[in-house]
Fold this sequence. Notes:
- The protein contains seven helices and 17 strands.
- By secondary structure, it is of the alpha+beta class.
- Strand 2 (31-33) and strand 3 (36-37) form a beta hairpin.
- Helix 1 crosses helix 2 (19-27).
- The chain starts with a strand and ends with a helix.
- The structure holds uracil (URA).
Amino acid sequence: MEKQVRLDKYLADSNLGSRSQVKKDIKQGLVKINGQIVKKCEEKIDIKKDRVFYKGSPVSYQKYVYYMFHKPAGVVTATEDKSQKTVMDFFDKKIRKKLFPVGRLDKDTEGLLLITNDGQLAHDLLSPTKHVDKTYYAEISGKVDEGDAEAFLRGLQVDKDFRAKPAKLVIKESGELSKVFISIEEGKFHQIKRMFLAVGKEVVYLKRISMGALSLDDSLDKGEYRPLREEEIKSLKK
Ligand code: URA
C-alpha cells in the first residue's frame, strides 16, 4: 500500500463521499490534519502518521474493503444490470463505489460471495494456479452414489471440450433427492450443474458454503453482508 495519498482521494476512499463532494468539504474547511484546518485538496496524507478529522470525527482510512455476502437466489452476480436486480443492489450506496463480486454464482445459486475493491486478491482467489477450493452444498434430483464420487475424483470429462479437475464429493443422503457437498477448485460456467448433468443427474439447489479458508457465517441471513474480520482477510491472503 502506498504511504502517501492526496487528501481528497484519502477521504473518498474512506467512503465519506464522492471525490467532488469531499473536495467541496475540504474547501469549506471541514477537514483537519493533525489539528490544523487544511483547504488544499492535493495535500499529501501520510497514511501511517497523519491524523485526519472530517467534520470533527476521526477518519479511519481503508484502501481495501472486504465483505462477506450471503447471496439469495434470484439476483445476478454483476455490478450492474439493465433489467435485473444485482448482488450489488444490496449494498449501501455509500460503500458500493468501486466494489465488485469475486467470481460468479448463477442467478439461482445461493451462498457465500466475497465483495471487495481489492483486484489483486480477487485475481489470486480466482487464478487456477492458486488452487482455491470452493465448497458447495447441493441437492440433486437422482441417486448420487460412490461411482459418481469416484468419477468426480478422477477428473470428470464433462463434455468434449472440458475435463474437470479432480473434485471431492461427499454424499450425505442418497435417494430420489440426494444431498451432497462438493468441492471444486475451478469456477467454469455452470460447472457443478454441468458435472452432474454429465453423470445423468440434475442440480435442483446449490449453495456455496466456503471459499478457501472463508466460510459463510451462519448468522448472515440471505441478502445480508458483514465486513470480513482481520483474521479472515489474512487467511484469504495466505
Ligand atoms: N457451479 C454452478 O453450476 N453454478 C454456480 O453458481 C456455481 C458453481
